[in-house]
Amino acid sequence: MLARLIKPKACLDEESTLWLFDVFAWALRNLDARVFYDETILVTPSNQHFPGTESSVHGMANLIFNQVKAHAGLKHWPTKLTNLAEGRPAKAPKLEIQGALRGSKGIMPSGAVPHQLHIAYNPNQLRDPEVLIADFAHVLAHYLGRMSNEPPPGGVENWPHVTEVVAVFMGFGLMMANSAHTVKIRSCGSCSGPAVERSNALSQYDITYALAIFSCLKEIPSSEVLANLKKTLRPFYKRATKEVMRKQHELNQIRENSASLYPKLWNQSKGTEQAR
Q: What DSSP string describes 150-217?
């Protein structure tokens, strides 16, 4: 009896939790709710979602980048990938996207493209593809987020944090969580290059909680997430998923706010309520 009265300890502080829900609501309002519910998948660090190989460093980086773009629903965006060793790209031009902002309804540019988004990669990160995938997803999340018609929750001063959640929103939560604070320790000076790192604004627990929100909204079984999530985060993810599922008020608010932009979701939720 006493166990029932003890409230489970919250995974994160309440302010952080509500902010994460707010960012998802903001993303759904501004970055296409239809694509999120109909086309976005849980991208896994596996051959299923990243098949193929290339003989050169740049070829492999380009292969991975194009796969990240496709999974993010940004395949039609005009981009050019450059090696960071060759220098940082010039300031990004104003993108001209034809058709839908993202997803299958986007229109691939034909002919010469006057404005391309130049994105640089660190070739050392190919030694840990999850770090490279997460970095690509985060960079694309930055440019996608800039297409929003309203400022993000907490203001633009939290932009690095917001864009990490947007990367989770796009389906890359596993790589974002697995690579957070990643540092590969060198075993000796001659057999290993520089450490493979990904700097991140949010903690691995914040990102994992965002992944739990994503999975609950998408109704993705925990088994699919846990099979690809690093072991040290699995207990926290299980707790976070249970906590998110208890926050029906926040989940319903997100669904209701999305309904005006995506009527199909409203019809589905009403049907679920009637079935209950």
A: SPPTT-GGGHHHHHHHHHIIIIIHHHHHHTTT-BPPPS-TTT--SPPB---SS-HHHHHHHHHHHHHH
Burial bucket for residue 212 (CB in 10 Å: 0-12, 13-18, 19+): buried
Euclidean distance between CA atoms 120 and 138, whole angstroms: 12
Q: From CA 82, how far away is CA 261, in angstroms rounded? A: 36
SS3 80: strand
Q: Is residue 258 within 8 Å of 26, Cβ to Cβ?
A: no
Sign of CA pseudo-dihedral 214, 226, 235, 185: negative
pLDDT classification of 87: cutoffs 50, 70, 90: low
Confidence of residue 95 (pLDDT cuts 50, 70, 90): confident
User: Rounded distance, CA 84 to CA 121, Å?
Assistant: 5
Determine contact, residues 183/195, Cβ cutoff 8 Å.
yes
Confidence check: pLDDT of 154 > 80: yes
Q: Which residues of 15-46 are buried (b: 16+ CB within 10 A; e: fewer)?
A: ebbebbbbbbbbbbbbbbbbbbbeebebbbbe
Q: Which two tokens stand for residue 49?
A: 């979602």
pTM of the predicted model as reported, rounded to 2 decimal places: 0.87
Cα separation, 64 vs 57, in Å, equals 11
